[in-house]
Design brief:
This protein has 486 residues and is α/β, with parallel strands linked by helices. The protein contains 21 helices and 16 strands. Helix 17 runs parallel beside helix 20. It is globular, with a radius of gyration of 23 Å.
């Protein structure tokens, strides 16, 4: 058996870095694609040579991480970084299986000698002990900006926090927000600004139609831009995203043997997205042991397939023993890829997907981890509770896909009133299908607006906040930026 030849490695690296051939380089396809709204803040983080840190780009498969990184490379050249000092390497390439991160520095000797350089490691989680190797490079090459990406968050975020303190800055790239989806598909004119960070539409029916499209296939840039992918999500989304994560990423990273059990659990959770769950109920339905279920849920969450929201009671204190929780799809359109698109008349399923979409819009907020839902005896429940830094409820919300609140405000908001009566809550929101209103809930302002507009507002306003300062979006360092619901 022969070792992988050095010339073969060199040929692959040269092919993946076409900008090295300055004479014949005419650009890359990714440069022609639309920039995501997260591009500008990530560029500021990734190409800030004054900050001696590696930028770690996290996110699900197929949300545009590699595209964004390639676009960053183009920006680096525009800002004067020598093309020969820029290297891109996808760590999951078989030819690189025997290489450590240090080995790649041999291909950019000018950077090693003190010139400015940019080194990109795509899908870095496939390298064992990557976090220590990357930290060593950051310490050894002060003039080089290191950028890494990965799809399995636990293998990245946990290790980056443990071993990369002071050397790594994490940046979350979520699925397309509803705001981005409308912009990507040329429907941005459906919504217009009607006040300070508030929005309205002149055609609610058209906006809701676009929102259902978004729920079905709108979380992925490719699906938003490519009609062929949109018409066949089972082939392009399920096989390329879900099966690779379930069959490749998670088993290889965590040594999972029962792949069939993992797949079965994910299908169960995906079908019931937005519904309350418990380890006991899932165990009874699946036949799996509760410790295994708990572990697999953590893995699925770390791979950005699901979002797990913990519960509080009406005291808004986290329960010592978590009996119930809610599971949402990280990207609502995963459900359509698995079980087929949801139709406009399936109000129950749309309601659950709408809840999933609301939480999905919040993912880039540094305070995303402060979102809960409330549940207490006598069937009391509130869909969204935001706990401030003192773990007190600052605002609450209900997510519905109906207009029942228009004719029966007291009944539809009775659980919210219960929480407002027990706590000093600043504000509240209630989402509907088409109805808009401004009410007062026991002396607390209650904003009522359609779910589609709410999702648009959250996605747009959070991305606006990313442009303020580096501290806002260096998520590993800042936990002070509280989300604003309106």
């Amino acid at each position: 058996m022969r070792d992988i030849a050095g010339k073969d490695i060199q040929a692959r690296i040269t092919r993946d870095n076409p900008w090295w051939n300055v004479v014949h380089f005419s650009g890359i396809p990714e440069d022609e694609l639309p920039r995501r709204v997260y591009f500008a803040p990530f560029k500021q983080l990734a190409l800030n040579f004054k900050v001696r840190r590696a930028a770690i780009l996290l996110g699900p498969r197929r949300v545009g991480k590699t595209v964004m990184i390639k676009q960053i490379i183009i920006e680096a050249m525009k800002e004067g970084v020598c093309p020969g000092n820029i290297l891109y390497a996808s760590i999951d390439t078989p030819l690189y299986s025997s290489l450590g991160l240090q080995s790649f520095m041999d291909f950019v000797p000018p950077a090693a000698q003190g010139e400015r350089g940019v080194i990109v490691f795509d899908e870095i989680q496939y390298l064992r002990d990557w976090e220590q190797h990357l930290k060593d490079l950051v310490d050894s090459y002060p003039n080089v900006k290191f950028i890494a990406s990965g799809s399995a968050a636990a293998a990245l975020r946990l290790k980056s926090k443990e071993s990369g303190a002071g050397r790594f800055s994490d940046f979350m790239l979520p699925p397309l927000t509803f705001y981005e989806f409308l912009e990507f598909t040329g429907q941005g004119e459906l919504v217009h600004e009607s006040g300070d960070k508030k929005y309205s539409t002149d055609d609610m029916e058209a906006l809701n139609s676009s929102f259902i499209d978004y729920l079905n296939f709108g979380g992925y840039p490719e699906a938003a831009l490519n009609l062929e992918i949109r018409n066949d999500p089972d082939r392009f989304i399920r096989s390329d995203i879900i099966e690779k994560v379930l069959l490749k990423d998670l088993p290889s990273l965590y040594g999972i043997q029962d792949i069939q059990g993992l797949n079965k659990l994910f299908m169960y959770l995906a079908y019931n997205t937005g519904a309350e769950a418990s380890l006991e109920k899932i165990s009874q339905s699946s036949g799996m042991a509760k410790p295994t279920i708990r572990k697999y849920i953590e893995y699925l969450e770390s791979a950005f397939l699901i979002i797990k929201i913990s519960t509080v009671d009406d005291t808004c204190r986290s329960l010592q023993r978590e009996r119930h929780f809610k599971i949402y799809l990280n990207n609502p359109s995963i459900r359509a890829a698995l079980f087929g698109p949801v139709s406009a008349d399936d109000s129950v399923t749309i309601g659950h997907l709408a809840e999933s979409a609301v939480f999905s819009q919040w993912q880039h907020s540094s305070s995303f981890g402060q979102l809960r839902y409330a549940r207490w005896k006598n069937e009391g429940e509130v869909d969204v509770v935001y706990l401030d830094h003192k773990q007190k409820p600052a605002w609450i919300g209900e997510v519905k896909w109906s207009d029942r609140v228009k004719d029966n405000l007291d009944r539809e908001t009775r659980h919210m009133k219960h929480l407002v009566g027990r706590h000093k809550i600043d504000s509240a929101f209630f989402t509907t299908k088409t109805f808009t209103s401004a009410e007062v809930l026991s002396d607390v302002a209650l904003s009522i607006r359609p779910t589609a507009l709410y999702c648009y507002m959250v996605g747009r306003n959070i991305t606006r906040s990313l442009d303020v300062t580096l501290e806002v979006f260096e998520m590993s360092d800042s936990d002070d930026v509280e989300p604003q619901y309106s």
